[in-house]
Each structure stands twice: as C-alpha cells, then as structure tokens.
Design brief:
Layout: E1 5-9, H1 15-26, E2 30-32, H2 33-41, H3 44-67, E3 73-75, H4 84-89, E4 95-99, H5 102-105, H6 121-138, E5 141-144, H7 150-164
Parallel strand pairs: 1-3, 1-4, 2-3, 4-5
Helix pairs in contact: 1-7, 2-3
C-alpha cells in the first residue's frame, strides 16, 4: 500500500490546505504528518522546546512512516525531506513540490507558531534555500501557490495525477 500522491515543500506554502482541497476534489483520504505528530505528542512548538529539533525529527520520521502506509494523499511537514530514509521512501510515488514566493509567504508566517522561523521571512528564505536540493531530489513536478487560488492549483495537480497514475 502506498499513497497516490505526496505533497512536499516549504513551511507555509499551503500543503495542508491544498491536500484537503485535492482530497475532496478527487475523493481520496488525506494524511498530514504534522497533524500525526501533534495528535500523538502535542503542539510542535512545545515539542521543539522540550526535545529540540533532533527529537522532533525523530517523531516526524515515525509520522512519515505511518502516513506513507496510507492510500490517499500525504502532506509532509516542510522539513520531512531532510531525512534520507524519507527521501528513499518517496521513490516511486508521485511527489508534487508546492512552492511559494517570499512576498506571498510573509502574510502566512504566524509569530511563535513555527520554531525554526524566529526571524520570519528571512529565516524562511534561508531554510528553503537549504532544503531546496532535497525538495528537487524527491519531487516530480512543482506547483506554485503564490498567486494562484488553491482550488485552481488543486485542479492542476489532479489533472497531472491523472496523467502520471495508471
């Protein structure tokens, strides 16, 4: 059993919302790894505070393994691709990279909600630049949410998925 589609991309790019819309559009279940982590371990900022990033990444990896056992759409947390085992697990699964511009992401960055983004857009840009090679490694196609409505992006991904899935 494997997902029909995995969404990866930068924090605040719209992966979670897009996965929900896409799931509704094409009738597939949606699994979000950040939601698994919070369901099992509490709010992500508290996890970072209590066990640090390394501890969080371990919990996230377990969530990724659980999510990749589903048959629907999986939305990975922005940093899940850091783990080489996660990148290996994504081989053979259609992966859509969700991108967003710095200008568009600024309004989506809620202070205190994202522990790795203490300086807002500046932190976000550095994080995305660092992760970009991993995003490119695992993704088959990219879709931008900077100015296109999420319903339109969801439709574009659904059409692409029809083209690449048997």
């Amino acid at each position: 059993m494997a997902p029909k589609l995995v969404l990866v991309g930068a924090p605040a790019s719209g992966k979670s919302k897009l996965a929900k819309r896409l799931g509704g559009l094409i009738g597939l279940s949606v699994v979000d790894t950040d939601k698994i982590v919070t369901r099992d371990h509490g709010p992500i900022p508290e996890i970072f505070e209590n066990v640090g990033e390394a501890g969080f990444r371990s919990l996230e990896r377990s969530a990724v393994v659980e999510a990749l056992g589903s048959e629907g759409i999986v939305s990975l947390g922005g940093g899940a691709v850091i783990d080489p085992d996660t990148r290996a697990d994504l081989r053979g699964i259609p992966v859509a990279l969700i991108t967003i511009s710095q200008a568009a992401v600024a309004s989506r960055l809620t202070p205190g909600k994202r522990p790795l983004l203490p300086e807002g857009v500046a932190s976000w840009a550095a994080l995305v630049a660092e992760r970009e090679p991993w995003y490119q490694e695992v993704s088959d196609r990219s879709f931008d949410t900077s100015s296109t409505p999420l319903d339109t992006v969801a439709g574009d991904i659904a059409q692409w998925l029809k083209e690449v899935s048997p």
